[in-house]
Amino acid sequence: RRRGGQPAGARVGAPVLRPTALADWVGCLRLAVDSATSMVDRHNSYCRYVLLHLLAATGMRPVNDPFESLDMLDLPRGLALVADKSSYQPNEARLVPLTPMTVALVTHWLDHLQRLTRWVNESLPMLSLQIETTLRASGARALPLFFLLDDDLTVQRIDRSTIEGWWPTEWTGLPANQVRRELATAAINSGWPGELTEQLLGHVDLGVPAFGAHSSLSPVDLQRCLPGLAAMLERQRWSEIASPLDVGPTRRGRPLPR
């Protein structure tokens, strides 16, 4: 059934949202980025926008520190490695294709983090160094790739309850995996390739990926999901937006934006 009084018409049992409700919500997320004035508000609203887009675009189950590092993302190949099950083992992560919009948005996020390091360097050089570690291609990182900031620039990590707190009031009671439900509904209603959809959503037996030694599929086949993913994201009105932060100070002594 659909929330908001829309007659039942979806072909899956989990509650889904009206397309207009989703588009309006995404518009509000984008407006929050555009209207933020302080550095903290700009960072937090942009983090929320980019991370929720990633969850919507990949069907990832919300976990603590989702997409915790660049190890989970291969932007040149347009792939994400999703590990979102409580019983996760190294061979139970799955590959998910990324649309060009998603790749571009994550690229903007990396640029945003680089800008943020410049803005906080004068007052909190240690935080600046910690943020820089998130941009490493490999190795230990001091922070997850996505994080929030308090007004005093204390880092707040993101968990399932954080994501549920981002829903609008009228969505109270919907779970943190709501955008995953929306992707599942779009896949079924639009007739995406069945075996690839199962791979995309992680609906395969633990430890038995769709691209096993005896499978006729390869990761290249994931490209067949991209037109459907791109159309779904377009219907939801996601768009590519750059960092709301200026490039940052080029010399010491420039104050933080307020």
Q: Main attributes?
A:
single chain; 258 residues; mainly alpha; three-stranded antiparallel β-sheet; two-stranded antiparallel sheet; 8 helices; 5 strands; 40% helix
List the helices and strands and how they pair.
Elements: H1 19-35, H2 39-58, E1 73-74, E2 79-82, E3 94-97, H3 100-120, H4 125-133, E4 148-149, E5 155-156, H5 160-164, H6 178-189, H7 194-201, H8 226-235
Antiparallel strand pairs: 1-2, 2-3, 4-5
Helix pairs in contact: 1-2, 2-3, 2-6, 3-4
Overview of this structure, please?
With 258 residues, this protein is mainly alpha-helical. 40% of the residues lie in helices and 5% in strands. The chain has eight helices and five strands, in the order ααβββααββαααα. The protein has helices spanning 19-35, 39-58, 100-120, 125-133, 160-164, 178-189, 194-201, 226-235, and strands spanning 73-74, 79-82, 94-97, 148-149, 155-156. The strands form two sheets. A three-stranded antiparallel beta sheet has the order 1-2-3, with no helix packed on it. Strands 4-5 form a two-stranded antiparallel ribbon. The longest helix is centred in the middle third of the chain and has 21 residues, at 100-120. The chain starts with 18 loop residues before the first helix and ends in a 23-residue tail after the last helix.
